Amino acid sequence: MxxxxxxxxxxxxxxxxxxxxxxxxTAEIVGMAGFDWVLIDLEHGAGTEKDVLHQLQALxxxxxxxxxxVESYERQRxxxxxxxxxxxxxxxxxxxxxxxxxxxxxxxxxxxxVRGVAYMVRATNFGAxxxxxxxxxxxxxxGIVQVExxxxxxxxxxxxxxxxxxxxxxxxxxxxxxxxxxxQFEHPRFIDALKTTxxxxxxxxxxxxxxxxxxxxxxxxxxxxxxxxxxxADAAFVTSGARNMVDTLSALxxxxx
Length: 257
Known about the structure:
Elements: H1 4-9, E1 14-19, H2 24-33, E2 37-41, H3 49-59, E3 65-69, H4 75-84, E4 88-91, H5 97-106, H6 130-140, E5 142-147, H7 156-160, E6 167-170, H8 172-178, H9 188-203, E7 207-212, H10 218-223, E8 228-233, H11 234-254
Parallel strand pairs: 1-2, 1-8, 2-3, 3-4, 4-5, 5-6, 6-7, 7-8
Helix pairs in contact: 2-3, 4-5
């Protein structure tokens, strides 16, 4: 573990990005770039649960703490990912307290939760440190709930107070769509939703995160209290680099005429 939960609780501003290609190679490249954390995306990304193992292995020797976004709050979506050694799980499409509690329960062993016990898994160093992992997982694994709907805004105080939910993470595109103002990230309703999220998290002693469209938004979100901040993705980095190179070479080719 790379102390991600401790750093979140200490109030550090942590920078991260998305991994949505399902590639262990781009995971390693991004991890070595110096991000504090990365998000392996199983909701919208190209990879599957099988690909997560290789990405976690590639990230092992980097400073980036691996978080995985699962597809839903059902406990079976959590178990294998945690057993593979993820340091945190992000759960999308949470709309109310009941769903948030189910997500939190899936992160923990009995009697506090419903996570199944397995010894010979990567998270326990294949049995070598099972007891330590079972004892410490409550204090090391990061539980993240996404704020993406209008409904969840009415329950944020209760959700933030759930033991096992460490961070409220805003998905700007989904949230703005739910509010009927898609892509209008300066709209008063969207700003109010950001403030409501940050206030609920702060009241409960939890953190707030967001996926930015560009680095220019950093100060805006930081000033609102957001400390778990992501920007970009491996697919975007590859796309941008490829397009920039084509533009540069095309311009040089044109200059020959």
